[in-house]
Amino acid sequence: MTIGEGLIIALLAVMSIAAAATVRGADYDAAVNAANKRDYVAAAQEFQRLAGEGDPRGENGLGVLHANGLGVGKDEKLAAQWFAKAAEKGHRAAQNNLGELYLSGSGVAQDYAAAEQWFRKAAAQGDSDAQKNLGLIYAAGLGVDKDYTKAMDWFQRSAKQGNAAGQANVGHLFRTGDGIGRDYLMAYAWYGVSAAGNYPGAPQFRDSVAQYL
What residue ranges define each of the domains in the chain, with the CATH number in brackets? Predict the structure, then answer.
């Protein structure tokens, strides 16, 4: 799904299992370790144990597994329910994940206003993916007035935290000149930073603007 001129969006391709907060509890450690080893059945069992105790980390983890069909049957509706439980408790990764489901209409009715609401909650807690997603919403005018200045602001917040997708999108806006004025040198630089973070397509975008330098 491509939004605007070359803007990159990859919804639900990879969702973060871990929140930024310090990891506590043997069950959560075990779940993350199992997921990292691609033993998703074991991860699901540990996340289920946590979720049964009302732990939002377990709820978000189950949402991730169900959204992607890892160790459990793929069920985006159930994923949305788990994300919602964790999001209501303030879990920022779950808030972003729920926003992505609303944005794409996966497991829930597509609702740009709800997506923007959840992205904003997560972004306020410093979630770089949510900040990038707010940039995409403003760049495309999804449920909000199209505003490239606001899009650039959110992309830059994400990019400064090292988010490779946010960095690529900063590069896109410098390349197109939308909302900030065209600057091929800055586009080249941001694409290069994104490429260093192994973002798909960033090396090609970087090379495509090199001819203008």
Answer: 1-146 (1.25.40.10), 164-213 (no CATH)
Q: 139: which residues sit within 8 A by CB, 6+ positions away?
A: 3, 4, 7, 146, 148, 151, 169, 173, 178
Q: How far is CA 54 from CA 62, 89, 167, in A?
A: 12, 10, 35
Kindly state the average pLDDT of the residues 24-35.
80
**Rounded distance, CA 171 to CA 131, Å?**
16
Query: How many other β-carbons are positioned within 10 Å of the β-carbon of residue 77?
Result: 11
Q: What is the amino acid identity at position 150?
A: K
Predicted confidence band of residue 171 (pLDDT cuts 50, 70, 90): very high
- What is the pTM assigned to this prediction? 0.86
Q: How many CA atoms lie within 13 A of 152 on its CB side?
A: 17
Question: Is residue 106's pLDDT more than 70?
Answer: yes
